[in-house]
C-alpha cells in the first residue's frame, strides 16, 4: 500500500522497531504533559490562595477527568477506524471518519457541559463540596464547564494527528498547552489576582492554543487529514463508541482506584494509611502515564497495519512493545526496591509511621509494574484489532472488579500488606486471562486450519 504521506509511508518502509520508537517517545512526553496541567493548577492555587482554595480545585478536578475520558472515548475509537481506512488506502472514508469524530466529540461535550452547568451546584455537592470549599469549587467549575470543550477537541485532535503520521506535532501541542498553562496561571493568579477562576481560565486558553498548534498539520502538503462535509452515521457512531469504550473505562478506573485505596486505608489503618497512600499515588500517577503512553504508542501503527492486512508487522510490533513494557516494569521495580526511602523523601518530611508505611508500600505495590505495562499494551492491541470485549474485560477487571474484591478479602487476613498487594495481584490475574485468551485463539486457529 503506497501513500504520499511521509509519516505513513515510513510505517511500510521502516523497521517495526524504528516505527515503535518513533511513536513511543512523543507519546510518553505527551502523556506526561497531560498530567502536568492539573498538577500545576494545584501548585499555583495552593501557593497563592491557600489550602481551602486548593481543596476546592481538587473537588472540581473530576470535571477535567470527565473531559479527558470523553475525548479518549471518541478520539481513540474514531482514530482507530481512521487508521484502518488509511492502511487500506481509503483516504476519502478516513477523512469522513475524522470529521464525524470531531463533530461528535464537540456536540457530546457541549451537551454534557450544558447539563452539568445547569445543575452545577448539585454537582459540586455530589463531588464533595462543603460550605468552605463551595465558592472555590463553583468559580473553578463554572469556567471549566463553559470552555472545557477546548480540552476535549484538542485531546481528540491530537490523537488523530498522531494517527496521520505526525506524532511529534501531537507531542508539541501538549507541550504548548502545558507551558502556557504555567505562564497563564502565574499571570492570572499572581499579577491580575483573578482567583480560582483564573486558574481554570488558564487551562482553557492553554488547551485552545494547543489545539491551534495542531492546525499546522493541515499546512503539510502530504497530510491526509482533512475536514469534509459532516454526515451523521449511527453505524459509525456505534462502532466509534464501542472501540473507544475501553479508553473511557481506563480513565474512569483511575478514579475508582484512588477512591478504593483511600477507603481501604481509612477503614483499616486510618489517617496514617491515607497519608502513606497519597505519597505512593503521586508516584503511581507518573508511572501510569508512562504505561498508558506505551499503549497509546502502538495504537496508530496497529490500526494502519490492520487496514493494510499486515498481520506480520502487527505481531512484530506487539512483541517489541510487550518486551519494552516488561523491561521497563522490571527496571522500575528494582528502583523501587532499592530507592523506596529516597522516593518518599522527594515529597517532604513525614511522621516516622507514615514514612515507614509509604516505603513498605512502594516496595510491595511496585511489583504491579512488572505486568501493568504489558496489560496496557495488550489492552490497546485487543481494542485496535477488533477484540473489544477482551479489552473491556481487562479494563474493568484491573481497577474495578478484581481490585474491589481483593481490597475486601486481603486486608482482614494480611493487614496493610494485603491492601498494597491488591493491585499487583489484580494485574497478574488479568495478564493470566490474557495468556489464556491468546492461547485459546491460537489453538482454535490451528484446529480450523487442520479441518480445512
From TrEMBL:
Regions crossing the membrane: 20-40, 52-76, 97-120, 140-160, 172-192, 198-219, 240-262, 282-305, 317-350, 356-378, 390-413
Keywords attached to this entry: Antibiotic resistance, Cell membrane, Membrane, Transmembrane, Transmembrane helix, Transport
Single GO biological process annotation from the record: response to antibiotic
Pfam families: MatE
Locations listed in the record: Cell membrane
MF annotations from Gene Ontology: antiporter activity; xenobiotic transmembrane transporter activity
Keyword hit for Transmembrane helix: yes
Family the entry assigns: Belongs to the multi antimicrobial extrusion (MATE) (TC 2.A.66.1) family. MepA subfamily.
Name of the protein described by the UniProt record: Multidrug export protein MepA
Species assigned in the record: Paenibacillus flagellatus
